[in-house]
Every structure is written in structure tokens, then in C-alpha cells.
Amino acid sequence: MPGNSFGTFFKITTWGESHGRGIGVVIDGCPSKIPLDEEIIQSMLDKRRPGKFAASTKRKEPDRAIIMSGAFEGMTTGTPVMIMIENKDADSKAYEPLADLFRPGHGDITYMAKYGIRDWRGGGRASARETAARVAAGAVAAAILKKENIKIYAYTVELGGVKAKARDFDEVGRNIFFCPDADAAKKMEKRVLDVKKRGDSIGGIVEIVVKGAGPGLGEPVFDKLDADLAKGLMSIGAVKGIEIGAGFDAAKKLGSENNDPITPDGFLTNNAGGILAGISNGDEIVVRVAVKPIPSISIEQQTIDGSKAQRTLSIKGRHDIAAIPRINVVCESMVAIVLADHLLRQNAVSLT
Questions:
Q1: In angstroms, rounded to a whole number, what is the distance separating the alpha carbons of residues 130 and 23?
Q2: Predicted model pTM
Q3: 10-residue block means of pLDDT along the chain (352 residues)?
Q4: What is the CATH number of domain 5-349?
Q5: Cβ-based neighbour number of residue 255 at 10 Å
Q6: Which terminus of the chain has a smaller tally of CB atoms within 10 A, N or C?
Q7: What is the per-residue DSSP string for 311-331?
């Protein structure tokens, strides 16, 4: 299946299915002498591990990272890094009644159209379970960025129509939704519980901010930094939209309002989101992604079976109510992977 790899200098290839024996990633191009051990990876994986939130699936995977190659005595060796995560709590029984049905909102019908076969156990390769491999790779990318004092923050600014008004970054780690607004976080929790009772699901918006990325990252013309960020984030299954800086609001502004004035001390505003002409300008990089509602819901829906006969279904089993907050670290990881790739590419352009 082509399309399993991402990146140029820092290149990742993920593998595995939701209900297979495990999932993982191979990273090629990771420099040597980057501090790396399983606990560094684990600290990232724990942020997306299921079973921790009211909105989360009851599937309880330990998600223990196993470094199979590419590291020795706590340092990368410069050879390919392979990380494996075993599936310990997969239960395919709930999917057996759905084996011949196409679930609305899922990739069942498109996978069948493309390949003529699909793994119906939890969605197989199309499952959000695949994102654990990305998070493992993101931990390695973050270790590279740490040496350059580049930090990435991902937090919830909207969930189920509840919007965060405040941006108190100290608050992000204090609530289960990673929301920078304490009052909004309380409303989000109530919203999730209400939707859960109805057997439905909700979507939201995650904002990602990068601090410390210097100017010069990005490759004109087709490998612009914002283009690669968009591709990386849009490759996450639940993401349906992306904004950088002012985003769609830029379309409503005058040029005099949207341009960021430049002073000897830097930019006065950041409508560009830290990127100009596809290259980082040294300001904070600001990205927002729109996350769709989880398609697996217990409310009865119309569909068809493999013979195109009209059917109805109600999806049982263990499913998230919202991809947020577990998707936040996936977004953070994809941004880290893109930045690590472009940092290494820039180092090849200039050693100064």
C-alpha cells in the first residue's frame, strides 16, 4: 500500500493495523547522538493512550514503546530507528456483525472500492490506532528539536461548540481536555457527557503553537513549510480542515489589516502565523485544525451492505465520543515531524 511514508530527510514509515499483532514506525534519517530511550517515547504515547478520559474509548492499551533498532546506550546511532507497539486489548467480536456493512463516515466503502478487500476489524489500517506510531515518531522528532530549543504546544480551543476564550497555557495541563480556559473546560466536560448519553459524538478545534523555530525553515516552491504542515496534519484521519495564522479570517481583512508590520524588534502582529512565502519568519508558528466528530455512534444510521442492499446499523463496541483530547498529541507529533525534517533540510543548505 503506497503512501505509508512521510518526509524527506527525516522520513517515517508507519505499519500495522488496529486489530493486528501490533503497530509501529521506521524512521530513516535520524541523526546520531540524539538522546533517546523508551521513556522519552512513552511520555508522548501516554498523552494519547485510550481509556483515560470521559470522551475516550474503553479499550485499554498499555501502548508500551519498544525500540527495536537505531539506539544504543540512550543515544541514536544514525541508523534506522524502529519502534514497535504491541496491540494487547484488541477485541474484534463487536465488529463481526459489521463485516459486510459499510459504516457511514468511515473508510470502509472507499477501501473496498480501491483494494477490493478490507480489514473490517476496527477499520484496519484506516483506524486511528495507526496514529500511535506517528506519536512515537513525533517523540523522536521532538528530541531533535529540543537540541535547538524548539517547543511545540497543542491545546483544545473548541469542543462540541464550546469555545475557549482565555489562553492560559498553565491551565492546559490541569484539565482532561488540554484546554487553556478553565471555565470552557468545565463546559466541555458537561457537553461530552450529554452527547455520550445520546449515543452521538462531537468534533472540535485544536490549536498548535511552535516557539523557538528560527527563520529560514521551508523549501520553495512545492515544499513550503505551511504546505508540508497542512499535508502532515490533514493526513490524520479525523482532520478535515486547517488554518495557519489568521487563516480564513484573512479573507475578510484588508491588506493593510492583514500585513504584519516589521520593526527592528520583530513583527507587531502575526497574521502570517510565523510563515511567509512558505518559509518560517522567526515568529511563533500558529496552526489550527478542525477535527470531525467520531463516526462510530450507537444511533441508528442508514447504509448498504456488500451487495448494495439497503441496511441500517447501530455501532456498538468501544469508541471515543470525541477525537479530542487524544488527537492533540498526534497533531503535536506531526508538526514535530515536519519541523525536524525541514530543520535537517535547512542544515544541508547552510551550516551557519
A1: 7
A2: 0.94
A3: 90 93 96 97 90 59 92 98 89 82 95 93 88 97 98 98 95 96 97 94 98 97 98 97 98 98 97 98 98 95 96 84 96 98 91 52
A4: 3.60.150.10
A5: 7
A6: C
A7: EEE---SS--S-STTHHHHHH
